[in-house]
């Protein structure tokens, strides 16, 4: 694809989200550099992509030739500066730690081209704080993908007061080229998706704690009664109870809203290591 909006994309962080974002960009036709801090992290990310593409071929969602072409467009490195220098678009997918994200972008702004778009995959953190002190703030934007990125259609594009209209238009167009349905929201705690989704998940956990119904029946109520593709408790398991708890604590502080108070049951489960799918046990056994 010669008219792809961003010819070269650097994805920083080769975990579940970073690997998925890299796959999406490569499938759309971009050359992708997948970066992480250790070779074993990069190798694991590449294997995630291979496995995901293999499933796609098995399910006849794409051909073997398309899978091979996607892989051929992905290179891997542990050199963050080199990855940034080559990119037209950088997307970070590192852990949801504000200081970590901000320090990363302060470093990147010295290596990336002045017109390179800087995107963060944060699901809830203030973009103003994530990008604080970064050169050329007009090119900074939120690009919140959903798990798993190769399957989920939504891309939540988040603008700051400094984000230029040309940056917004470029990212919205690229989202469409990647097969996503973009929505545009302003920089606000939790944006549109996390603010609503986390609040629903927390209330479902309170219902479990109160014995209102089983996790399976609460989820079934939302799937069959409201048309949700997945119930709030199964989704919490998929995202990770620890991840959602951290987001809830952040939103409780930023919004001063009791709806984001973390239930005792959730804190106990996290303390016991019941984090959801990644640990094999949450509200469901995986």
Structural description of this entry:
Helices cover 49% and strands 14% of the residues. By secondary structure, it is α/β, with parallel strands linked by helices. It has two domains: 8-186, Rossmann fold; 193-277, N-(1-d-carboxylethyl)-l-norvaline Dehydrogenase, domain 2 (Orthogonal Bundle). α1 links the parallel β1 (8-12) and β2. α1 (16-28) crosses α3 (64-72). The longest helix has 20 residues, at 39-58.
Q: Notable features of this structure?
A:
N-(1-d-carboxylethyl)-l-norvaline Dehydrogenase, domain 2, 286 residues, 8-stranded mixed sheet, 12 helices, single chain, alpha/beta, 2 domains, Rossmann fold, 49% helix
Give the SSE layout:
Layout lengths: L7 E5 L3 H13 L2 E5 L3 H20 L5 H9 L1 E4 L2 H6 L3 E4 L5 H14 L5 E4 L6 H4 L9 E6 L8 E6 L5 H13 L3 E6 L6 H17 L5 H12 L5 H8 L1 H15 L8 H8 L15
Parallel strand pairs: 1-2, 1-4, 2-3, 4-5, 5-6, 7-8
Antiparallel strand pairs: 6-7
Helix pairs in contact: 1-2, 1-3, 8-10, 8-11
